DNA sequence: CATGAATGAGAGTTCATTCAT
DNA sequence: GATGAATGAACTCTCATTCAT
């Protein structure tokens, strides 16, 4: 419905860049607290300690804030993926997975509703262009990580596997952050997520809690 | 934000029950078309062919409509689960899974945005009570179905497994309905979803595309 | 820019009709007092003694109020034209003209700025359709009046003459109402307007102040 | 509403004078394109290639721009009037009139909305002082031109005649530029305007389309 | 003097909700 | 019970104006 999605003004000055960051952080807090509709731009400005006008100087409309938040999230995820990828040689797929799950859970637990919102409300927003662009980064890193471990992976179609794995990953992490199953230890939860991911990718994953075999007689 | 969540008035009369159903169906159409905020109660009333007042007679506020929609969805899923469960003796876990995936995809493809909305916006709504109650039904049936196949299932904690499986299931079906990966055949997609679910549950599932036997010696 | 121009809801009930009239009258006062931009819809509602929502129930946007005001003005002018036209047999063209000028001046003096606004800002508004439609009524009556006196009229192209006469008429009346020339008696002013109109139409009109004979052989 | 109307600073320096002119030209373009409210000072600055601050250096507020535009227009009209006046001895009143009409039409056709705006919105602006002052120049030249032809003019009150003639003139030219009657040749239109003016001034003017009888003995 | 980032009051418009009929 | 006109708080976004640099 609205057209522009990118910041009106690319912040060149250090001061502006700082301002933009301040606004994005404020938006994160506000959207996390109230959801997309509950959030309002004046509140974002207030929390950022600037005037509404300044918000609109850099973000042409409310949706642009969400887009920015999404990009922020993607940058975050890419950073994590890169770190794990850097250590990929030294890490088994399971180790890499568990590390990713653990790190992601931390991220999602700081702003659980925001993450859900990004996942759910963004697709409704227009301008798939920008979204896809940013998301592609995550897609690419993930695919790259999987490729690195292709020896262990049984799924023949790597693109499809990336797609499936990313969806599972995000959803399970969201769920664990927002509505964790009652009475489950955090480690068990992380383990379950990893199991699910590796079960699909390698089929060799399974309950390894009790290293012993035969969990069931 | 608001407090009451349950219909003000349980419709005892047949006429009322019909009215309520009409309103819920209208709500389904409107929410699917416009999303939570985009939808408005006056439009729901218009589509239902009743007055706003009548909508408020049975649904104390906008959120109550979403709750009702959620219950409708749960009823739908339960029906599907029951059908599969009824045939459980005759079906292998893989067969049951594939049937569930296929049926669910149909459902989600008729009202994709609504499903996403229910998944995403509902948790934001208050009154977890009603939600959990309805959702528990799905949880229970799923657990029951898994229990019926416990011989094949490697996950020791059935509650946790149910939790994980349900999340994966819903998310993958949503994703497949709303943003399917490009260039993937429908059957391959359904297969991938089943693989993911069974990979976690049984560890024995894997790519069976290449019909080759003995995935494992 | 906006699309709808006509009231959203044709007021069928007597109460609604009254409400619409109340709002239009309030709009007249507010627009006359503050001009198009200076006026604001909340103020219109306040003056009308209703809520903004009610204004928007009948007028989809600010412009629709101006359109309604224009229609009100046109109805007014048509009424005056009809009255004069009814007596046309008994009136000379000069008498008819002077009566029209006198009546119009009264109208314009009650809401001078509004009249100016209608004349000036309306064309900027979109939806020429509705405007032309309403305006055509005035055009038609005027042409009809001129036709009735065609014997005295020297202009060969009646459509062009109607166009020219209407413009002169409106402008001179506006001017006389809003910025009258200093030190000129009201009657002299009315006379001057009539002279201008008749000078164009009949060439026989002229200053009859000094009853002097034969202004030109 | 606001008080100051005159430039804060009379531009003495050549550079400043140039700057002021640049801004006024930009304002002309912007106001013509968007109308009074649609225009905004930042856009004017942008089009002028200067900063908003610079605009405010010379024009204390938005209205001051309109006032300046009015003065620009008046200067333009005065120039035209002077040219015709210079040739007054050699020109009949009809010739002078037709020349004025033709020249004015050219002017109004370059910036039709701006002209309308000046005519319509200016009176709403405060500070009649400055306006009248500038307008007086046009008034004076026109009166002077009429005086030069007093022999042919039948209207006894020259001030009133000037007033009436100016209003007719401006309105008919505006109308011809903005909403010309359909299907009328440009020359016929110019002729009609001249006829109207001369009909009032001399009563001897009339349709001369059919060149038939001597329009003047 | 020039700049333009920042301000913030204010405007148009929507829509969940009420309640007199 | 049903209706739907009426309400009005609240929200997004604009833009005239200022002032630190």
Give the helix/strand layout.
Four copies of one chain form a homotetramer.
Chain A: H1 14-38, H2 41-48, H3 52-58, H4 62-86, H5 93-110, H6 112-121, H7 128-148, H8 158-178, H9 186-202
Helix pairs in contact in A: 1-2, 1-4, 1-6, 2-3, 4-5, 4-7, 5-6, 5-8, 5-9, 7-8, 8-9
Chain C binds a DNA duplex (21 and 21 nucleotides) through α1, α2 and α3.
Fold and architecture overview:
Chain A is 70% helix and 0% strand. By secondary structure, the first copy, chain A, is mainly α. Chain A has one domain (15-202): Tetracycline Repressor, domain 2 (Orthogonal Bundle), CATH 1.10.357.10. Chains in contact: A-B, C-D. Chains A and B meet through helix 1, helix 6, helix 8 and helix 9 of A and helix 1, helix 6, helix 8 and helix 9 of B. Chain C binds a DNA duplex (21 and 21 nucleotides) through helix 1, helix 2 and helix 3.
Quick structural summary:
The structure is a homotetramer of 217-residue chains. The first copy, chain A, has 217 residues and is mainly α.
CATH class of chain A: Mainly Alpha
Helix content percent band of chain A: over 70%
Mean pLDDT of chain A: 84
Helix count of chain A equals 9
Annotated CATH homologous superfamily of chain A: Tetracycline Repressor, domain 2
CATH topology descriptor of chain A: Tetracycline Repressor, domain 2
Beta-strand portion of chain A reads: under 5%
Largest interface: A-B, 48 and 51 residues
Choose one word for the global shape of chain A.
elongated
The CATH architecture of chain A can be given as: Orthogonal Bundle
How many domains comprise the coordinates of chain A?
1
Distance between the termini of chain A: 59 Å
> Which oligomeric form is depicted?
homotetramer
Unreliably modeled segments of chain A: 1-7, 205-217
Secondary-structure element pattern of chain A, one letter each? HHHHHHHHH
Number of strands of chain A: 0
